[in-house]
Amino acid sequence: MEQIAELALELDKLKSVYRKSYISDTSRRENSAEHSWHLALTIMGFAKFLPKTVDINKIIRMALCHDICEIGAGDVSAYFVTDAQYEKELQYMSEFESRFPGIGTEAKALWQEYEDGETEESRWLKVFDKLLPFILNIQSRGLTWQEQGVTKTMVLNHNEFIAELAPEIHVWMLTQIDLAVKNGWLKDNIAP
């Protein structure tokens, strides 16, 4: 029972890691635990649209585990990630694995699979992991983009991988990006 309590308290720390994205009513920033839950449920909702070869159980488990690393490494903007961040995440996941054999080993393996981005599940998870903050930015009228000085080119480059895997999603995102620029929610880095 002590180990269960210790694990539960360690995972509870993810609720205190605040992300850059605001929740949809813009009253506060979301935390990483909420993001992971939101991601897993969104994937459940879209499971029937994913290729039949995607292991839904695995992608949901990956969604729930992909940001555990932030307990030790914190969150950084997806637009400003450095190699040092990956090293901090890896260090924490190794410590987590050591402290919690079993779930720690599975969580680290799922986290690494997501980071490597070589499996179908990890690639689809990345689509939705990028899509959710994008949707929140549209809902908040670009609040996070504006705070961070993110430009249209940065958003396009960050999400261009989606075009190959999920072209319909990508086309919708392009429409939303144009709308965001038109409305002044996202800077168009082309001089007038």
SSE order and pairing:
Layout: H1 2-12, E1 18-22, E2 29-31, H2 32-46, H3 56-65, H4 70-73, H5 83-99, H6 103-116, H7 120-139, H8 143-148, H9 152-159, H10 162-165, H11 167-182
Antiparallel strand pairs: 1-2
Helix pairs in contact: 2-3, 2-7, 3-6, 3-7, 5-6, 6-7, 9-11
**Total number of strands:** 2
The poorly predicted ranges are none
Mean pLDDT: 94
Widest β-sheet, arrangement of strands = 1-2
What is the tally of helical segments?
Answer: 11
Beta-strand percentage?
under 5%
How would a textbook summarize the main sheet? 2 strands, antiparallel
Structural class: mainly alpha
**From N to C, what is the helix and strand string?**
HEEHHHHHHHHHH
Could you explain the architecture of this structure?
By secondary structure, the chain is mostly helical. The protein is 65% helix and 4% strand. The protein has eleven helices and two strands. The protein has helices at residues 2-12, 32-46, 56-65, 70-73, 83-99, 103-116, 120-139, 143-148, 152-159, 162-165, 167-182; strands spanning 18-22, 29-31. It has a two-stranded antiparallel sheet with strand order 1-2. α3 crosses α6 and α6 packs across α7 (120-139). The longest helix has 20 residues, at 120-139. The protein is globular, with a radius of gyration of 17 Å. The protein starts with a helix and ends in a 10-residue tail after the last helix. The model has no long low-confidence stretch (mean pLDDT 94).
